[in-house]
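Example record used in the benchmark description.
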Amino acid sequence: MKTKYFKNKRVFLFIFSALIPHIIYASPLTLEQRMEILEKELIRNQKELTEARRQITALQKVNNQPYTSSVSNKEQWNIKPEILSGGPAKQSGAERIDNDQINDSALKQISSYLKDDAGLITQGYFRSGWGTGNRGAPRSWAIGSLGRFGNEYSGWFDFIVNKRLYRDDTHSVNAIFKLDGNTSQQYANSWFGDDTRNDSKLQFQDFYVSTRGYLPFAPGADFWVGRHGLKGYEIQMLDWKVHSANAGAGLGIDNISVGKGRMDIALMREDYDLWNKTRTSSKQINTNQIEIRLKQFPVTQQTEMGVSARFAQPNHANGSGANADEFYTVKNAWLVTAMLKHRFSNGGFNDVALQVADNSFATSFSSYDSATALFGVGKYYYGEHSDGKAYRLITQGENYLSDRIIMANALVYSWGKDIYSPDTGPHTRFTSLRAVVRPAWIWDKYNQTGFEAGWFSQVNKDRAKNRFTESGLKTTLFHTFKIDTSMLTSRPELRLYGTWLKVLDNELDNFTFDDRKQDQFTVGAQAEVWW
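Model output (C-alpha cells):
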C-alpha cells in the first residue's frame, strides 16, 4: 500500500508542476492565441487535479486518514472559461467545469503576465457631466476653498501611455507620455485650440524616458530624462496641489533607497513669461529648479513621514538688457514641506502637512482659489517680491465613523507677511481659513447619499493697511453610484447633486453670478473615472 501511495504522491507533485503552462514561452504568439492556450491548460490541469484529489482521498480513506485540501473554498478557481477566451467556451460536456473551479488569483496572474509580456501600460482619468442653474448656465467659484462637488463644470482628462522598450535581468527602459487637457462641456462642436475664447485645450505634459538598473549606486531606482516632474500631492476635495507636478524638461532619480525610506531628486526647467511693470508686454525668462524629497519613512506601523524642499533660480541673462528696468525683478524662491501620513485600521486615512515658502512660492499661498505651489501665476511671473514668507497648515483624509457612515474632510489654514499678492499688491499681509466636510450614509458598496459643506474666509491687508475680505459658503446634497465605499480612493463614480453657492464677501475679486446675484442654485450629474 505504501508503494502505491508514494507512486500516486509523485504523480500528484508532477501534476502541480504542470500548472505553469510552459508552452506559452515557446514561441511568439498573439494575445488571442495565448489566451486560448491558457484556457485549454487550465481546463486540462483542473481535470488532472480533480482526479489526483480523488485518488488521494480514496487512499487516505483506506488508511482512515481524511483528506483535507490546502486550498480553501474561497480560493477555489472561480472564473468562467469563456472569460479567458473572450467568447463561449467550445467544450464537450465532459470537458466543462463549474464556475467555482477557477480562482481569482489564477486570473490575476494570467492578466499580469499578459500585461507584462505586452510591455504596455495605460492609465487615465476624466470627469464629465451636465448641470443647469436657476439663472442660466451654472458658474464655478472658489473651488479651491469651497470644494468640488457641484462646483466644477470642466471636462478635464489625463491619458498616460507607458511602453517598455527594453528589459533584461538587470536593466529596463520605458518611454512614457502623458496627454492632458480640457474639453468643453458647453458646445456641440468643441475643437481644440489655443484661443482664449476656446476652453477645449490639449497638451503633452509628460514626455520622457525612464530607466532602471543603470545606476550602480541605486540599481532599484528609476532614472529619467525628458519633460517630466516629480509627482504632485493633491488636496483632492479642493482640486489643487501642495506640490506642483508641472515642469518643462528635466532629469531625475525616483525611489532611491535611503535607510528605511526613499528619496526622489529632480532638476527641472520651468520657464515663464515675465510681465513688464505696466502689463503691456512680456518676455521669456528661464528658471531652473531642484527638488529633493525624502519619503515613506516609518514612524509607527501605520504612520509614515516625509520632507521635501524645492529651490528655484532664474537665469539672470534673460532678465538683462537695455530695458531691464521696465520689467519686474525675478528672485530666487524656495518651498519646504513636512508631511505625516496615517492609515486607520478600518480603511480610512489622514494626512497632515506644514509648508513654508518665500517670494513667488509664498504668493501662491495667498490664492483663495487654486493655491497650487507654483513659481509663477499661471504662465506669467510678475510682482515686487520682498523676501516675505508664507505658511500653510493642511490636513485632509477620510474616516469611517461607523459601518454605515463615512466622512471626508479638508482643512487649510494659511498666513503670510510682506508678500506680493496679485489682488492687493506688494507688502501684503494675509490670513485664510478654508474647511470642507463630506459625510455620507453608506447604503451598500455601490450607493451613498450625503452632503458636502464648504466655507472659507480670507483677509488681505495691503501696505497702506487697507482691509479686504473674501468669503463664501457652499452646500451640496448628492447621491453617488460607486464600486467601493471609499470617497477619495475609489472610482469610477457617478453623482447626482443639487448645490447652493453663496458669495458672502467679494472685496478681492468682485465676483457675482448672473444678474449680479450673490448666490446660485444648480442641479446636475457628473461622472469621474480613473484607471
